[in-house]
Model the fold of this input.
Amino acid sequence: MRTTEALSFTFPPKTVKEISDVAKKEGKTKSQLIRDALEQYLSERHWRQLQKELTARARALRIYTEKDVERIVDEVREEEDKK
Done:
């Protein structure tokens, strides 16, 4: 079973040259350079989506600052101590 799948992309000649130059300088294939760049992009995109979701949750809980986080942590600790 293959662990990769071939895809085809088109780039302007100037971009192809830059990809080739960077790949050569970094000792990577062009495919590896593109894979690395795309994986980085997808990771950053996932992180932004997670931040957006968690920001919405925090606002719903009226958490706006680090002090708010500390307040909630203190409240939870107090509740745990009561048990």
